[in-house]
Amino acid sequence: MSANRRWWVPPDDEDSVSEKLLRKTRESPLVPIGLGGCLVVAAYRIYRLRSRGSTKMSIHLIHTRVAAQACAVGAIMLGAVYTMYSDYVKRMAQDAGEK
Fold it and tell me: Residues near 32 by Cβ (< 8 Å), separated by ≥ 6?
């Protein structure tokens, strides 16, 4: 093994993780919102774990997973609706400009 134990560095022609995240955020801004929603819901449900009462742990975890997935799916749906709306508005504007 090599004695040199530096961090792995991507090749020059490859983007770093932060550059990829920023590029993806610019391409589809609702992805980080969905990810943030998942993290917030999961953190809140973990915080509320102590006060779950007589609810079984498995049920609590299932509810946490469903709530986090609902945030992600909601962000995906908002993105799809926004894309369809913007495509429709652009097409209508182009059709109106041609007439």
Answer: 21, 25
